[in-house]
Amino acid sequence: MNRRPNRSIILLVAFGTLFIAGTVVYQNQSGEQDAAPPDLAIASENATRNEPQGGVSIAGGIYLIGYDAGPRDVRPSCQIKLAPFVIDSTEVTNAMFAEFVEATGYITDAERRGQSLVFDLQKQTFTQQQGANWQTPAGPGSSAVGKPDHPVVQVSWYDAQAYAKWAGKSLPTEFQWEAAARGKNLERSYPWGTTLNPNSKAMANLWEGNFPIRDLGTDGYSGTSPVGIYPPSENGLFDLAGNVSEWTSSWYAADSYDRITRENPTGPNTGDARVTRGGSWLSSDQTGTSEAMVWYRSKLSPEMSNNFTGFRCVRNQTPN
Q1: Which one-letter DSSP state was computed for residue 261?
Q2: Where are the alpha helices (DSSP H) in 59-205?
Q3: Which residues sit opposite 263 in a β-bridge?
Q4: CA–CA separation, 119 vs 213, rounded Å?
Q5: Which residues lie below 8 Å from residue 237, measured CB to CB, with a gap of 6+?
């Protein structure tokens, strides 16, 4: 079957070199230091905004976080107690972010830098792209125009935080995010159940095929997809796995679960990176573990922006 083994080895080495080089770019940007964005032009209480997808109420109570057979930073699994909260049913879209920008005159970190991180599907690697920002997510020649219902990308943690403040909300803690994704089912690996594609049905926008060589796109998309087109979780939340990874308010630490309080935890008080959750259109399960799993923790420097990370917001549950 393998008629040209030498050529296959050369190709694998070449792809490996590209991937490593791209990863170095990715990691280097994570360490960049950038000034915090300017204050908002208007206060959140004076803003008007549309929330077409609304929010979902998550009941207060006891939830499981972590996974004892997972990486060190998701151990030990433990039970926590959370107050009730409301979480956006979808990720914040281009249309929603555009409304925020129009109302406030806000300029994102990527726009001020003049460049941002992009995973280039053609080059099959990560690259720092001049002119990449939320309006041109992959750089010049790309556009968010015509994609109002796609999740906004090329937003740093500071950009997401600014939007949340304007909207009168906040970013979820990583523990709120996991509770919303996992629900009360202690065996669940994905927001919909225990297997990636039950009944051979695509449940999320993920990378299918060998990363980074080729995304087969059998779920219908290579790159971001409109929010809300895949089946919701049992509590009515969309895209908690795949599409774009999501910023949380929590600082990252490898030993967070050893140190957190068991009631309404928020995570460490400081750090170098913020936790992101849910995986993205780049996430693959070819290693047996996927970033899309409800317990998986990723991290990014808060100054970083790219074309595979976005966010959703939460607010405190209104008392009855």
Answers
A1: -
A2: 94-104, 109-113, 157-166, 174-182
A3: 81
A4: 12
A5: 56, 87, 89, 180, 181, 191
Sequence-ordered list of residues with C-beta below 8 angstroms from that of 254, at least 6 positions apart, any chain: 72, 73
What are the residues whose beta carbons fall under 8 Å from the beta carbon of 98, sequence distance 6 or more?
Answer: 148
Tokens encoding 84: 């009730």
- Phi, psi dihedrals of residue 9, rounded to the nearest 5°: -65, -45
pTM here is 0.85
Cβ-based neighbours of 182, under 8 Å, separated by 6 or more: 63, 64, 65, 188, 191, 294, 295
215-242: per-residue pLDDT in tens? 888 888 989 999 999 999 988 999 999 9
Task: Kindly report, residue by residue over 3-34, the tens digit of the pLDDT.
Answer: 444 444 333 434 444 444 444 444 444 444 34
Polymer length in residues for the chain:
320
- Cβ-based neighbour number of residue 255 at 10 Å: 11
Helices (H), 75-205: 94-104, 109-113, 157-166, 174-182
Residue 307 token pair: 């074309």
* C-alpha–C-alpha distance, residues 154 and 12, integer Å: 30
Neighbours of 77 (CB within 10 A): 15
The fold for domain 5-316 equals paralog of FGE (formylglycine-generating enzyme) (3.90.1580)
Confidence of residue 286 (pLDDT cuts 50, 70, 90): low
